[in-house]
Q: What sequence folds into this?
């Protein structure tokens, strides 16, 4: 199934290139393949590192220009989170919900079918919705536990200081 999406994305890119008389470069297709091989979200830096590991070096300009093209063709979705921009290979216009930790920045996709049903029933005036991305911001369980441990340590140190006085 993942391979089917990559094949569909490559076909859409090829069609666009042919219809618009663009150059059919190996860099564009290598970047597209690399993006579709990544599970989940990625940053432009992670993509550049992945390409370097594969000994396929592309310039920053090529990276940014290709990503912008892929976003415009709806082959990649651009997500602007609180602390950074991430991308997701997604040749379908499916709906996504994400939770983002405001402390560590971790982003995870969540499946919320009940919210999807509500949002799918919403009718917007003079607007044809294609898809949506919904973002929840808060504190993840790991950061909550870390914060609680720090708070407990401070309380312990304070009570030790009080005892010594």
A:
């Amino acid at each position: 199934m993942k391979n089917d999406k990559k094949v569909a994305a490559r076909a859409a890119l090829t069609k666009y290139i042919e219809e618009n008389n663009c150059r059919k470069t190996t860099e564009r297709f290598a970047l597209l393949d690399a993006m579709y091989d990544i599970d989940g979200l990625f940053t432009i830096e992670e993509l550049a590192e992945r390409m370097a590991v594969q000994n396929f070096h592309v310039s920053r300009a090529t990276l940014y220009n290709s990503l912008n093209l892929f976003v415009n063709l709806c082959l990649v979705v651009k997500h602007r989170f609180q602390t950074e921009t991430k991308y997701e290979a997604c040749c379908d216009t499916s709906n996504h919900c994400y939770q983002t930790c405001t402390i560590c920045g971790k982003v995870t996709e969540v499946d919320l079918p009940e919210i999807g049903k509500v949002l799918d029933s919403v009718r917007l005036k003079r607007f044809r919705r294609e898809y949506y991305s919904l973002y929840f911001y808060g504190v993840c369980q790991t950061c909550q536990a870390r914060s609680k441990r720090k708070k407990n340590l401070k309380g312990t140190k304070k009570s030790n200081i009080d005892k010594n006085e």
Observations:
- The chain is about 50% helix and 15% strand.
